[in-house]
Amino acid sequence: xxxxxxxxxxxxxxxxxxxxxxxxxxxxxxxxxxxxxxxxxxxxxxxxxxxxxxxxxxxxxxxxxxxxxxxxxxxxxxxxxxxxxxxxxxxxxxxxxxxxxxxxxxxxxxxxxxxxxxxxxxxxxxxxxxxxxxxxxxxxxxxxxxxxxxxxxxxxxxxxxxxxxxxxxxxxxxxxxxxxxxxxxxxxxxxxxxxxxxxxxxxxxxxxxxxxxxxxxxxxxxxxxxxxxxxxxxxxxxxxxxxxxxxxxxxxxxxxxxxxxxxxxxxxxxxxxxxxxxxxxxxxxxxxxxxxxxxxxxxxxxxxxxxxxxxxxxxxxxxxxxxxxxxxxxxxxxxxxxxxxxxxxxxxxxxxxxxxxxxxxxxxxxxxxxxxxxxxxxxxxxxxxxxxxxxxxxxxxxxxxxxxxxxxxxxxxxxxxxxxxxxxxxxxxxxxxxxxxxxxxxxxxxxxxxxxxxxxxxxxxxxxxxxxxxxx
Length: 472
Prior knowledge:
The structure is a single chain. This protein has one domain (54-221, 302-470): 3-Layer(aba) Sandwich (Alkaline Phosphatase, subunit A). It is of the alpha/beta class and 472 residues long. α13 (305-317) packs parallel to α14 (336-360). The longest helix is centred in the last third of the chain and has 25 residues, at 336-360. It is 35% helix and 16% strand. Strands 1, 4, 5, 6, 7, 8, 11, 12 and 15 form a 9-stranded mixed β-sheet that branches. It is built from 15 helices and 17 strands. It starts with 11 loop residues before the first helix and ends in a 14-residue tail after the last strand. The chain has helices at residues 12-18, 20-33, 37-40, 70-73, 78-82, 90-93, 129-132, 151-160, 170-178, 236-257, 260-283, 290-296, 305-317, 336-360, 430-440; strands at 58-65, 114-117, 122-125, 138-145, 188-193, 216-218, 322-328, 367-372, 376-377, 393-394, 398-404, 411-413, 415-416, 423-425, 428-429, 449-452, 455-458.
């Protein structure tokens, strides 16, 4: 791994003055020869390196698409359970907007038991027994809130800091702010389980940032990255000649129009060439010992969240800066008693294994694992259908948790009222959440900006406060 302070970076003006074509040409030859500095030379408009000493180097972001119920997993509310079936208080119902509920609903206490875990005594649902074994590694925030209560805008808010399409994702900002530590792999990798609805690939898009910073989706079956393999009849030597010819054509166009995005495209072609060797080796889980497969619950060759968790550890080991795992299926409008246990069985063991594995390898101190979603679920029932009851979207108070370096372990932050409806202590807006993540990586959220549409933009826009109370 290279010292980020020594990695070369060029802003738009210096890239033009020093000759983008010359830089890109040098990068092509040095990149194929194994010089990791080559690709960084193509990153135009790069900001200053870390503003302060980072507490972590990498992030593994676990986004549970649809919104897990904090009421049933992380936020035990005995008063809500005692008042189960009562009409929701008028004061809470007045002027309330929900995604689906139209009539004043009844309160819905969790049907699941909770238990304290570890020396910290963190309370977790019976649905998360494996996570309970690593509870003392967790930093749990019960007071996250957002403005968005529908999936697509809330997912965009959670990943880009804005409820509409077109903004760069968190992973893209991190890539832009810190650069790469591996010349053979993307700086920002995304893996999905399930068919993603809502915001789709905008959750890892680069928006107005150079496209080299967008997330690269890895697949568990077929080509790990689409079109990574050579087509029939094309070997590596011929592929290299094709890339050189394509580079020469792009260089002519770059010299003519002086668009730095062309240099970015050239860099992406070259990275794809190098990935042909690095990615298949990375994705082959057969070299992992059996006890690791048993720990995670993986099944090589299948598309499982457990496999993605193990791959996330392998990516972090190889210097990938930001890994995002999206898992679909948490939108429990109905049948929460059946659907939520099923989803928890899919993720509980591999997430706990990931935390334990990172710790054993000495990687947890420099890696931050983040678990969260675009919003939570209501403490009221959506549709009183007995055993098939579920919960609507809830934006005003939900839970995220962290595990990793720089934070207080076995620590809870923020508090909601006795029904779990409103935040009553230490609120954390999504902008604050993003500001805190950037700070842990050594980035000042107010200084990490990019010019677009006539003004400077940042992930947290005009808001954001770092939650220093979480820091160890």
